[in-house]
Write a sequence for this structure.
């Protein structure tokens, strides 16, 4: 059991499914209090029912677009009203839009930037202001991607945002470190979620052939990594991006390589 999690208050955006849901559930299992955010009410309905039934009184839901400044402000206010403090913030919400560089449209570009970057930047800004006033430290974990480390076809815009989050992590150690607030980043590799399964029916089988450990990651793998970075055991880890990819970036093969 990792220490420093029990009774801490966490905000997790994009928590309806996949990695965000697994992070929220693992935090609750370790006796944290969690405010979960999701934009899709239908997606969140069964997930929130499951969490609130298993962890009554420790979990609340705030619906809305995590890239919208008004929603971010409401999310912060809701957290303080219900739990009285903020200790952990995990801006997990993000959008992946594939597209040819020469055909990518401004409205799609803005959509990706607003959620992936604006949402993370201003949620961390607002939550950190609260943490500093509380004067008891805190933890921030951002969610990057291996696509922010290596190039991948038709993901220029998305990859830019994920690389930017890694730089945000490094930059903010200067601002947050003196207040005992650490900020780190996770870069998931090929991970089997509802989204990736929809994108490619044999996602797990295809990517398993490319990953040295012979299997894709799971949302639980990312949640366990996040929990460690939030814990007291990770107190001296700051400004780092932890790649969780089974060794994929060590070799960087793509699905097209299977045909050669």
């Amino acid at each position: 059991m990792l220490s420093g999690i029990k009774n801490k208050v966490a905000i997790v955006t994009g928590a309806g499914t996949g990695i965000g849901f697994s992070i929220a559930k693992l935090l609750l299992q370790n006796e944290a209090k969690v405010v979960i955010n999701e934009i899709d009410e239908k997606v969140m309905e069964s997930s929130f029912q499951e969490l609130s039934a298993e962890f009554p009184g420790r979990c609340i839901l705030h619906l809305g677009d995590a890239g919208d400044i008004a929603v971010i402000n409401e999310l912060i206010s809701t957290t303080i009203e219900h739990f009285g403090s903020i200790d952990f913030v995990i801006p997990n919400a993000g959008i992946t839009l594939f597209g040819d560089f020469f055909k990518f449209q401004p409205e799609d570009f803005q959509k990706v930037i607003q959620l992936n970057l604006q949402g993370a930047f201003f949620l961390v800004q607002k939550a950190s202001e609260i943490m500093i006033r509380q004067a008891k430290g805190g933890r921030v974990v951002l969610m990057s991607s291996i696509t922010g480390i290596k190039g991948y076809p038709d993901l220029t815009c998305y990859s830019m945002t994920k690389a930017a989050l890694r730089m945000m992590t490094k930059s903010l150690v200067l601002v947050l470190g003196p207040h005992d607030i650490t900020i780190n980043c996770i870069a998931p590799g090929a991970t089997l979620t509802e989204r990736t399964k929809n994108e490619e029916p044999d996602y797990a089988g295809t990517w398993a052939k490319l990953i040295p450990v012979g299997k894709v990651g799971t949302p639980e793998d990312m949640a366990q990594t996040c929990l460690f970075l939030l814990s007291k055991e990770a107190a001296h880890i700051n400004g780092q991006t932890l790649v969780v990819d089974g060794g994929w970036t060590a070799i960087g093969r793509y699905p097209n390589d299977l045909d050669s």
